[in-house]
Design a protein that fits this description.
The chain is of the alpha+beta class and 164 residues long. The chain is 47% helix and 22% strand. The protein contains 5 helices and 6 strands; from the N terminus they run H-H-H-H-H-E-E-E-E-E-E.
Length: 164
């Protein structure tokens, strides 16, 4: 979107409508993704859903009331637009990817790896490797620690940073 705003002919595009479909399609797809994602304030998701429904309805009605000689072309364009918007909206709802941490305990003592925010509690027996599998649902800083008594106090703790 930003490159379109700095184009010298951006104002002309707004006046004529030529070339703005690509910008609008991407923005509407992102809006649909936000509406479907289940993240963010409820009122914003409801407003996004209403806006997307109105745009889809306008596309269908616009195709239906077009002149007979343009109806098949407009129907093809409407189906293409709706398919693209659906694909973009679905892509924008993709959740964060799962995280897999391979944990090796080469110590002579039993340890654990715990991240309460993601309900991760992995036992780490002596001389073995363990796997911590979880999905980070949001960017942020999350404390982790060893739950064995005295280990956190001995410094077996840290912060996991998830960046978008």
């Amino acid at each position: 979107m930003l490159p379109a705003l700095v184009q010298p002919d951006f104002v002309a595009q707004l006046k004529t409508g030529l070339g703005t479909g690509a910008i609008g399609t991407a923005l509407i797809g992102m809006l649909g993704g936000y509406a479907l994602s289940g993240r963010g304030p409820r009122w914003a998701r409801i407003a996004s859903r209403a806006a997307c429904a109105a745009l889809i309805l306008a596309t269908i009605v616009g195709t239906a009331v077009s002149t007979p000689e343009l109806r098949s072309t407009n129907a093809f364009l409407a189906i293409t637009l709706l398919a693209l918007l659906s694909l973009l909206a679905a892509a924008c709802t993709l959740p964060h990817l799962p995280i897999a941490l391979r944990l090796e305990n080469t110590d002579t003592m039993v340890h654990s790896f715990d991240i309460d925010a993601f309900d991760v509690h992995v036992a780490m027996p002596t001389g073995t490797a363990a796997l911590a599998l979880f999905t980070a649902t949001a960017p942020g800083s999350y404390p982790f620690y060893c739950r064995i008594p005295g280990h956190t106090e001995a410094g077996m703790a840290g912060t996991l940073i998830i960046e978008p």
